[in-house]
Amino acid sequence: MASATDTVSAGSALAGGGDRTGVVTRFAPSPTGYLHIGGARTALFNWLFARHHGGKYLLRIEDTDRARSTDAAIEAIFDGLEWLGLGGDEPAVFQFARSERHAEVAHKLLEAGHAYRCYLTQEELAAMREKAQAEKRPFRIASPWRDADPASWPADKPYVVRIKAPREGETVIEDLVQGTITVQNVEIDDYVILRSDGTPTYMLAVVVDDHDMGVTHVIRGDDHINNAFRQIVLIRAMDAIEGSWPDPAYAHIPLIHGADGAKLSKRHGALGVDAYRDEMGLLPEAVLNYLMRLGWGHGDEEIISTTQAIEWFDIGNVNKGASRFDFKKLLNLNGHYIREADDARLAALVAERLPALSPTFDASPDLGGRDLDLLTRAMPVLKVRAADLNELARGSVFLFAQRPLSIDEKASGLLTEDARALLGKIAERIAGEAEWTNEALEASLKAMAEDLGLGLGKLAQPLRASLTGTTTSPGIFDVLTLLGRDESLARIRDQAA
Length: 497
Known about the structure:
By secondary structure, this protein is mainly alpha-helical.
């Protein structure tokens, strides 16, 4: 174990050791809950870094917490990553399945004298902790078993295996995001790598898995900075034993805060990625664009495609400070991507939401997809005013409403006795139009308004109420052409005097 100053160079992993060439990153979530938005950003930065350097991006499920890890959470993580286009380049590694390999490394450390059996009881540890508190000093494990002769190890008492951390000098990490970080080695404790039941701890498993997966760059949240210094102890010890255990390059990215600067919580939008898709109706490209701009950017660019991001991404340009989550900006960005999206794709996404809003909507193949076709044709005029798929779905309900329409309170207020009489005249006027097009209908109604000495709005308002049951909709001539001649006239006549 080195006792002088040790440095983890930002470029050391790229140079590699043994047969390691090229960049390999990993995203390693714990399946104890949903894939949250902060985890999605970490995955994205790993993915972008690997793509930028022509390397590999791998997934690892850290499921060693058997009591809290669930199959449902694993499925949700994979589902969220696939939706964002961040699936791994190879099948995911499951950490628990590698427990024997982790224990094997622990025993190598033990045999080489880089780790030791510790027989301290919970009572003895508690007494040490209480003494440190009484003396107002940080608690550090000072096990009498650290330097004990292995021949003195009891054969019939339970023990844990602890790593021998260096006690002199300092360790310096040249972090790709945070810059130079220095820790005095005396602050690194002899932490447990094998529990008393022989199972490996998280700290050991992470180091072994990163090595075996060939990870060159560890890009993760800055709440893991302290773990980096502890994990380096294991890496250096195994390199001393076997060689070819190079230090990875570290990049610790800041956490995400709410718009008010507080730690991100559900009230700020810290929900599972599935909620952004299912409940909020966001598009994956919008979420990706927003996440990459949370702490990283390229000049003043706000709209960044994944192709551009791969070209431009530089981990060194990630901000050191926490980013603030702004849901309004995310919605604005989503509105942009909705306007840019393919109409057939949007229609298919909206169709999944419509049955809950419109019982008559039916896009089943046996109807020839007529409803879906209508929805697709409506997208150009519906998407210009929508910020998310939910708004698109609500805005399209009128297309599939059953007659007689249910008229909401505001629309009902427009359907006065005079307005209903006017609707009868409108129906009579447009029924004779040879062409049912925006241009023909607009010209006809404008002429009618002039003949009656009215503004076009006086016709459009009751007309919209009769056609949609609401006071908001796409342009009235778009509504007429989408509904078609027969349906439009029937709806108008339902409300006419």
